[in-house]
Amino acid sequence: MNYDLPAELLVESDGPVRVLTLNNPDQLNAFVDPLHDAMVGIWAQLAADPGCRAVVLTGAGRAFSAGGNIPGFIRDYEDPEHRRASLRAARKLVDEILGFPIPVIAAINGPAVGLGCSLASLCDLVLISEDAYLADTHVSIGLVAGDGGAMSWPLMMSILKAKEYLFTGDRILAAEAVSLGLANRMVPADRLADEARALAQRIAAQPPQALQETKRALNLHLQQAAGLVLPFALAAEGESFGTDDIRKTIERFRSR
Q1: Where do the DSSP E strands lie in 50-165?
Q2: What is the pLDDT of residue 112?
Q3: Is the sign of the CA dihedral 222, 223, 226, 227 positive or negative?
Q4: 42 contacts 3 by C-beta, under 8 angstroms
Q5: Do the beta carbons of residue 212 and residue 101 sit within 8 Å?
Q6: Tens digit of pLDDT for each residue in 111-147?
Q7: Are 54 and 215 in contact (CB under 8 A)?
Q8: Sign of the dihedral defined by the CA atoms of residues 41, 198, 222, 112, in that order
Q9: Contact 38, 226 (CB under 8 A)
């Protein structure tokens, strides 16, 4: 199958497995507009691929994803219409991933920060390199965690721990991510890609109807949480752009 994608997102076929790679390594796979748009649209393309039975999601280079890119963040601050479009796209990305019928394995090869961390939490299984970490830094830069861990993390760890890491933005190292329930297991960096593919091949060999409808049943929990949390959280995130704290964050970014 031919995929219609920009250079910032790659698809490789490995038998019944599709390896999806965030491909903006010079910016640590930050979500520039072409990458964000492609990540919203890729799930329908993968679902239409008759040979796809499992997906591995990873990042090119030394990061999984640094999250949102600074020019886009500044534009969201300056342009209310662009900000509204960005928030609508954020909701659509969550809905597309949670509704995608085929299992997705995240191979966290490096830092997964902000939107990158949110993306990892929406995957079905997570393998994390021993030298990688997660961090939801929305609050630390003055944003409500609209499309971040506020929706998914309380289903994966204690709500007290979720609050601690969301309130502080602290890094969650690989071993702690496993302990909290944000990752299935920690893997040596040089074995991560192979182990993720091997797990994907094993899952791809399962009976597809049983596998996919089991995923659907489990994801109803997350979809219910998304329906409850996201309308408020994303609206509140939009309001964050009117605060003095965001003005100060923008000034810091511009001075770099």
Answers
A1: 54-59, 104-108, 112-113, 125-129, 133-135
A2: 98
A3: negative
A4: yes
A5: yes
A6: 999 999 999 999 999 999 999 999 999 999 999 999 8
A7: no
A8: negative
A9: no
CB 132 within 8 A of CB 109: yes
Burial of residue 197 (CB within 10 Å: 0-12, 13-18, 19+) is buried
User: Helix, strand or coil for residue 37?
Assistant: helix
Which amino acid, one-letter code, is at 240?
A: S
Token pair listed for 90 = 């954020």
Sequence-separated (6 or more) residues with CB below 8 Å from residue 165:
135, 136, 149, 153, 172
Tokens of 33: 């507009």
The CA distance from 176 to 157, in Å, is: 11
What does the alpha-carbon distance between residue 221 and residue 161 come to, in Å, rounded to a whole number?
A: 20
Residue 105's beta-bridge partner residues? 56, 125
Distance CA 184, CA 126 (A): 5
Burial of 194 (0-12, 13-18, 19+ CB in 10 A): exposed
pLDDT at 44: 97
- Cα separation, 110 vs 131, in Å, equals 7
Q: What CA–CA distance (Å, rounded) separates 109 from 91?
A: 25
**Residue 222: both structure tokens together:** 């997350």
How many residues are there in the chain?
Answer: 256
Interval 152-162: pLDDT, tens = 999 999 999 99
Give dist(CA 102, CA 208) in Å, integer: 9
Rg (CA), the chain: 17
